[in-house]
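Now for my pick.
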Amino acid sequence: MSVDVSDRAFDPGAVLSAFSQRVDGSGAIVTFTGITRDVSEGDLQAMEIEHYPGMTEKALGDIRAQAMDRFRLIDAVIIHRYGRLSPGETIMMVATAAPHRRDAFEAADFLMDYLKSRAPFWKREITARGADWVAAKDEDEDALNRW
Protein backbone atom coordinates (compact mmCIF):
# COMPACT_ATOMS: atom_id res chain seq x y z
CA MET A 1 0.00 0.00 0.00
CA SER A 2 2.02 2.96 -1.23
CA VAL A 3 -1.02 5.14 -1.90
CA ASP A 4 -4.35 4.50 -0.22
CA VAL A 5 -7.42 6.70 -0.68
CA SER A 6 -10.26 5.28 1.36
CA ASP A 7 -13.35 6.08 3.39
CA ARG A 8 -12.21 3.63 6.09
CA ALA A 9 -10.49 4.57 9.32
CA PHE A 10 -6.91 3.32 9.73
CA ASP A 11 -4.53 2.73 12.62
CA PRO A 12 -1.40 4.91 12.21
CA GLY A 13 0.55 2.67 14.59
CA ALA A 14 -0.23 -0.43 12.55
CA VAL A 15 0.70 1.38 9.32
CA LEU A 16 4.01 2.50 10.83
CA SER A 17 4.77 -0.99 12.12
CA ALA A 18 4.16 -2.61 8.72
CA PHE A 19 6.08 0.18 6.94
CA SER A 20 9.06 -0.18 9.29
CA GLN A 21 9.29 -3.89 8.61
CA ARG A 22 9.66 -3.45 4.86
CA VAL A 23 12.26 -0.67 4.66
CA ASP A 24 15.53 -2.56 5.01
CA GLY A 25 18.55 -0.28 4.82
CA SER A 26 16.66 2.69 6.19
CA GLY A 27 18.45 4.99 8.59
CA ALA A 28 15.39 7.16 9.16
CA ILE A 29 11.62 6.95 9.08
CA VAL A 30 9.52 10.09 9.34
CA THR A 31 5.76 10.10 9.73
CA PHE A 32 3.09 12.75 9.83
CA THR A 33 -0.48 12.01 10.83
CA GLY A 34 -3.19 14.59 10.24
CA ILE A 35 -6.19 14.91 12.54
CA THR A 36 -9.50 16.53 11.61
CA ARG A 37 -9.66 19.73 13.66
CA ASP A 38 -11.93 22.67 14.14
CA VAL A 39 -10.26 25.79 12.77
CA SER A 40 -13.41 27.89 12.68
CA GLU A 41 -15.30 29.07 15.74
CA GLY A 42 -15.34 25.87 17.74
CA ASP A 43 -18.52 24.46 16.26
CA LEU A 44 -17.27 22.02 13.62
CA GLN A 45 -19.63 19.07 13.48
CA ALA A 46 -17.96 17.26 10.57
CA MET A 47 -15.63 17.61 7.62
CA GLU A 48 -16.78 16.14 4.32
CA ILE A 49 -14.04 15.29 1.84
CA GLU A 50 -14.72 14.54 -1.81
CA HIS A 51 -12.43 13.36 -4.60
CA TYR A 52 -12.47 11.86 -8.09
CA PRO A 53 -11.64 8.14 -7.86
CA GLY A 54 -8.85 7.15 -10.19
CA MET A 55 -7.66 10.72 -10.72
CA THR A 56 -6.81 11.16 -7.05
CA GLU A 57 -4.84 7.92 -6.76
CA LYS A 58 -2.90 8.74 -9.94
CA ALA A 59 -2.05 12.25 -8.72
CA LEU A 60 -0.86 10.93 -5.34
CA GLY A 61 1.11 8.17 -7.03
CA ASP A 62 2.81 10.73 -9.27
CA ILE A 63 3.85 12.97 -6.38
CA ARG A 64 5.04 9.93 -4.41
CA ALA A 65 7.22 8.93 -7.39
CA GLN A 66 8.66 12.45 -7.53
CA ALA A 67 9.48 12.32 -3.82
CA MET A 68 11.06 8.86 -4.18
CA ASP A 69 13.46 10.16 -6.85
CA ARG A 70 14.11 13.63 -5.49
CA PHE A 71 14.89 12.58 -1.92
CA ARG A 72 16.44 9.15 -2.57
CA LEU A 73 13.77 7.38 -0.55
CA ILE A 74 13.64 3.68 0.13
CA ASP A 75 9.86 3.83 0.40
CA ALA A 76 6.96 6.22 1.00
CA VAL A 77 3.31 5.81 1.95
CA ILE A 78 0.45 8.27 1.48
CA ILE A 79 -2.93 7.55 3.07
CA HIS A 80 -5.83 9.98 2.77
CA ARG A 81 -9.43 9.49 3.79
CA TYR A 82 -12.56 10.85 2.18
CA GLY A 83 -16.18 10.96 3.26
CA ARG A 84 -17.59 12.39 6.47
CA LEU A 85 -15.11 12.75 9.35
CA SER A 86 -15.72 14.05 12.85
CA PRO A 87 -13.32 16.33 14.74
CA GLY A 88 -10.49 14.28 16.22
CA GLU A 89 -10.55 11.57 13.55
CA THR A 90 -7.39 10.68 11.66
CA ILE A 91 -7.66 12.13 8.16
CA MET A 92 -4.31 11.29 6.56
CA MET A 93 -0.79 9.95 7.03
CA VAL A 94 2.53 10.24 5.24
CA ALA A 95 5.49 7.99 6.01
CA THR A 96 8.92 8.25 4.37
CA ALA A 97 12.03 6.09 4.75
CA ALA A 98 15.52 7.00 3.61
CA PRO A 99 19.12 6.12 4.41
CA HIS A 100 19.54 9.56 6.00
CA ARG A 101 17.19 11.63 8.18
CA ARG A 102 17.35 14.86 6.16
CA ASP A 103 15.93 13.16 3.06
CA ALA A 104 13.18 11.48 5.11
CA PHE A 105 12.20 14.78 6.77
CA GLU A 106 12.30 16.83 3.57
CA ALA A 107 10.35 14.23 1.62
CA ALA A 108 7.61 14.14 4.26
CA ASP A 109 7.46 17.94 4.24
CA PHE A 110 7.36 18.02 0.42
CA LEU A 111 4.51 15.49 0.34
CA MET A 112 2.55 17.39 3.00
CA ASP A 113 2.92 20.68 1.14
CA TYR A 114 1.59 18.99 -1.99
CA LEU A 115 -1.32 17.39 -0.14
CA LYS A 116 -2.34 20.74 1.39
CA SER A 117 -2.36 22.67 -1.87
CA ARG A 118 -2.51 20.45 -4.97
CA ALA A 119 -4.00 17.06 -4.16
CA PRO A 120 -7.43 16.70 -5.78
CA PHE A 121 -9.54 16.71 -2.63
CA TRP A 122 -12.38 19.08 -1.84
CA LYS A 123 -13.26 19.76 1.79
CA ARG A 124 -16.47 21.10 3.22
CA GLU A 125 -16.89 22.09 6.87
CA ILE A 126 -20.26 21.30 8.43
CA THR A 127 -21.18 23.57 11.36
CA ALA A 128 -24.33 24.62 13.16
CA ARG A 129 -24.47 27.59 10.73
CA GLY A 130 -24.39 25.35 7.64
CA ALA A 131 -21.81 23.99 5.24
CA ASP A 132 -18.93 25.88 3.61
CA TRP A 133 -16.23 24.73 1.22
CA VAL A 134 -12.71 25.19 2.58
CA ALA A 135 -10.79 27.72 0.49
CA ALA A 136 -7.14 27.43 -0.45
CA LYS A 137 -4.77 29.37 1.80
CA ASP A 138 -1.95 31.60 0.62
CA GLU A 139 0.47 30.13 3.19
CA ASP A 140 -0.12 26.63 1.77
CA GLU A 141 0.71 27.89 -1.73
CA ASP A 142 3.81 29.65 -0.40
CA ALA A 143 4.96 26.45 1.29
CA LEU A 144 4.62 24.48 -1.93
CA ASN A 145 6.44 27.13 -3.96
CA ARG A 146 9.66 26.62 -1.97
CA TRP A 147 10.12 23.22 -3.63
Remarks:
- The CA atoms of residues 102 and 147 lie 15 Å apart.
- The longest helix spans residues 101-117.
- The chain has a mean pLDDT of 92.
